[in-house]
Amino acid sequence: MLTLHLGSIDMAHHCDHGLSCGCHNPTAEALLRIAVQNSPPAPDAEATPAATVLARPETPFILIHNNDGKGTIRTVADGDGTATVEALVVFGDQILFVGTLGDAKTAAEAISKNNPSVPDLQTIALSDGQCVIPGLIEPHVHITTSPVMMAWNNYSPFGDKALGDASASDDPSSEMEAQCLRPDYCLAKLREAISSDLAKQKTDASKSDWWLLGDGVDTSLMTDFPDHAGGKNLLNCIDKTFLDPISDQTPIMLISASEHTAYVNTPVLKAMWKNPALHEKLKKQFKNEEKFLEKASGVLQEMDEIVPALISINKRQMESLIADMPGNLIRMLKVAQKRGVTLVYDAGMQTSFAAMIKNTLQGQKLLHPKWPSPRIGMAHLISKLDELPKESFAKPVHPTICNPYETGSLNFYFGSLKIVSDGSNQGLTGYQIDPYCCPPENHYGLYNFAVSPSASDKGTPEKAPADFIELVSTAWQKNWPMMIHANGERAIEYALQAYEASAIANADISATDLRNRIEHCSLLTDERLERIKNSDIHPSYLIGHVGYWGWTFSNYIFREKAEEQLDRCNSSIERDICFTLHSDCAVSPLGPLRMMEQAVTRKMEGSANAAVLNAQERITSAQALVAATYNAAWQCHADHLVGSLEIGKLADLVILGEDPVKMDAQSAYMKMRNIEVQHMLIGGRNAF
Predict the structure, then answer these.
(1) DSSP string for 220-254
(2) For 150-200, how does the pLDDT look when each residue is reduced to its tens digit (9 = 90+)?
(3) CATH annotation of 7-25+144-313
(4) Which CATH architecture has domain 330-686?
């Protein structure tokens, strides 16, 4: 492995962990930082409210009813996924009535009488099979980093077509819109796709000096493993010996799905050597270009190694990538709406990135005032004490029409802090108690805080790092809710130790009020589940680990441990633990209906016969609906405004072509994810 020691070149990272760091989406964050550094300063939106004041649109006034039982209205009131009503009334941006159709009509008449200027009542009678549910919520996505990478060629494992298929869509949003695994996703198909994209790029004279850039590569989902790997493992199967035969002239740079690894060919390494910003430092470390190229495998790990390649990208190409960011953000949000999502929660926001997003949304609102974008919640990304925000936590407030993106409103608020403690299990960087079952041998993953082994330890150290516990405890003391990214068993154990110690140190601050979370929380024993329950901690499961990665986890990476411990949804329900389901987009595609389906069926899509991974952890469709609405709003501190269809809450709802709750573990597979989202209201206004 090439190790670069380039000091100040590391622009993208705030942590000090070097190659041991597993912070999420570091590559895209580096590109965003480059964009911020090369963009003119944006006006202060809060200081120029006139720029965001909008003409008042017509007030929504809508009655929706089930049409004598032809359709269904599921309110999910009080967290009950089976709760239904005959009708509801929307006035302005709120729900003003739920109940019988007769009473709904009476309520609508009273609204008309008391509001002389109200528009005519719009009545929606559901047709056969239609179902109204609360707006779906994605409680853990990345709306900064995902749009950045949409401009790169898509080599992800998700899509209806095989890599390199000429009929595949060129739409940059296709990666996050797809809901199924690609057929025959393998190294050979990747090679073909890169060759095809390179040939296509060469036909454009304006791109003659551009690099071939690709994103989303996930070796863990390739069919080469475990039986056709040819002596390679997940960490070294793509390197310069793989990429140079495709082209030894055009620079090729691929980014892994986790974005912790880059794969480059020799022309990229040569461009790095020639880069004036890098040359002297590389020369000092490697003496000459020949030795540099000899030592470089073409596999770059983490920001110390990836950023030097990023800043060597062709300048015009980088300018194009930066220019595409705002449009790709809007594309991502519209894909979310297509999937029924009315609120997205960014799990790791930095202040400068938030400003870019806010400016984009305000500009979009001025251009398209009738389009209600999904509401946006965010978690401050922190890794050390001096990054704790100065402001105090506050629940989001009801948005206003005149200034819809005022910070602190439900449309744009910070609801927690995010601490990333380890990496990803499919990338073999989740921090484990026992070594991974697949090659390389004796590999435990990585941890983002310095650990201190003791003589009594077996495997990784048993005690959580002191600085990690101090960070969690200080955040707790400041009344900030937390989301701790912890994938591996040891990382989860450390998260529990930190939360337990913080609860004792801050006994005057209720854990119940903070609603602290563990993100991914992939591998859980009964003992850890009991501690999660007793400590009032709330997991959010990347349920695609079962549906998409279940086969490779149970047959290669973890083996029997995956069957016993992975994403224990039903065990959480049995213990009355409030859990949610998330996509971590773009790690897996947007789509709460797909996530609900994977929790209900637990079928492993990578297995030949769609085998079930631990049927005892299946949940019902009604329980899955609660996880995707009521629980998600609660975890995001927004349940007083959204998450269920109840009087006084915002009118965020979707009308589906079918009722997902009527599907079960046998009928839902490959069907629930494809239920059509036919209509959406956000604050009573049509989203499409």
Answers:
(1) GG-TTTTTT-TT--TTTSSSHHHHTTT-SSS-EEE
(2) 889 999 999 988 998 877 776 766 667 889 999 999 999 999 999 999 999
(3) 3.10.310.70
(4) Alpha-Beta Barrel (3.20)
